[in-house]
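User: What would this chain look like folded?
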Amino acid sequence: MLLAILATGLFAALASPAAWSRTVLDLDVQRQPVALEDWGDYWIDASAKLTALQVAAGAGVNWQPTDRNAIYKATAGSVLWIRFTVPPAPDAERWYVELPYSSINRASLYTLDMSGQWNEQKAGDLVAVSKWPVPHRHPLLPIAVSAETPSQYLLRLENGHRFSAPLQFVSEGFLNHSEQRVSLILGIFFGLAGLAVLVSAISAISLRDHAYGWYALSVTLMALTQATLTGIAGLHLWPDAAWWNDVSTSVLPTLELASTLMFVSAAISLPERSLRLHRGLMAVAVLGVVMAVALALVPVERRMGIFSLYVFLPQVLAVYAMAWAWKRGDRFAPWLMIGLSPILIAGAWLMARNAGLVPISFMTMHGSQLGVAIELPIVMVILMLRSQHRRENTRRIQGLDRVDPATGLINGHVFAERLMRMIARSERLKHQSAVMIIDIVNTDQIQRDFGRKAAEDLPLRVAERLLSTAREIDSAARLSERRFGMLVDGPFSAEDAATLGPRIVARCLMPYKGMHVDCIAQVRIAYALVPYQGSNAQGVLTALEEKLASVSIEDRKAVFMLGETTPSKRRRQRPRPERQTDTV
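Assistant: Here's the prediction, encoded as structure tokens.
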């Protein structure tokens, strides 16, 4: 009977919800990290005044089971307490309580010793990293593991906003292995960021492009922000500056947003497109600098509220400015929006975590680094293409007095200069070169049959054919709307000249891609061998022009050599037969 009662009681105890609702904490080295799950209890002290001894006494404390994905509503001015007991476990390795959240203000672990006293270990932003029990990227607090007796702990957490980081336990061996992997990933990330800063700074100086300068500043602040969020900055850059380690998590992102806003303005040439919109973005960027100073001075409980007021304004304005430029024909604005979108999405996810809307996960912890790693190469390629486009435009503007802007060929002035030098070179080297004048003679017919656009495109297609025919040492020029010129450097014989002209005519008569098969250019060519047929550049050009002008419209011949008599002249110069008279 007694056994039956005991069995019934044991079954009821095991079947009760309280028995099955808790997961026993098992520090197993084979499966790490070991999450606290619901093994612990939590309580929020709204007054933030109770000590560890008072909390352990339990007077007025309403403990609730912990949860791995819980979002604890402990804000500034309140304290989150978590109690847990570590069951007996093998003590071959040293174990730590890990809080994978580097931006927590303060984490204090209280250990109950043999004399009944609670000993404190402190970490967090309000404590210099060099004074942590284990200097690390995020709080890492040692615990004592006994193979015989359980150990009781109290964890006191202070934060400026809701807390959602999972509490987990790791051994020293697992910690060393995981840190090597994380160090490799972070090293690649910061190396990529450093390369982007270096290339941008050099490009800003060499190309005198403000967009590169603003991008170098933006990436520098972005890298520092990520170093702060991952704990690298507190561990290596300012391990003794607890105050700056605390405020940098909000000051640096604010400055980064302001610099990114100025970069977007410079990248889409906003000062030249809309000075009013540019000044608006500049005002918001200056406001960001003021807000950064204010964030460094205000108390911690007001910092997150001020930061949340500003953080969305630069992002919305940047997207609006890029969309505005895209609508007005900026070819790089849409690609810039695509390049910056990963970091904007990651930033929104991070703000959702700080607001307590989502728990800490891989995306909230490493989403920013992933977004930056995707954004950096895309934006760098966009900037390089933009610089190349700007250089081409600059060369075109600077070469307008020497180059035809529509075709890229040299103009008549440069053509005459090069002709003079070619004649002088031919005389010195005692060989012949050729100069050609090419006229398009069917432009009016093309306009009647295929429209004005086809007639306007025809000279551009002829220019392409001339460039494909010319050698590297030759020169092609556009002398007027329908007239082109070509210099063929010698040694060049009369036979070569006789075959080159018909070859150019045949090339121009071939169909053009994207145009009607009958939309072809009919050209006439007049050429001269220099210095054999003239040593004065202007005189040769005038003679060639007169040669083409003398050709009859009905003449079906296409290539004429200087000095050759045209059919119309031959008819005019044909001698009359003498009249015969009868003699008586």
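The first strand starts at residue 34 and ends at 35. If you want, I can go into more detail on any region.
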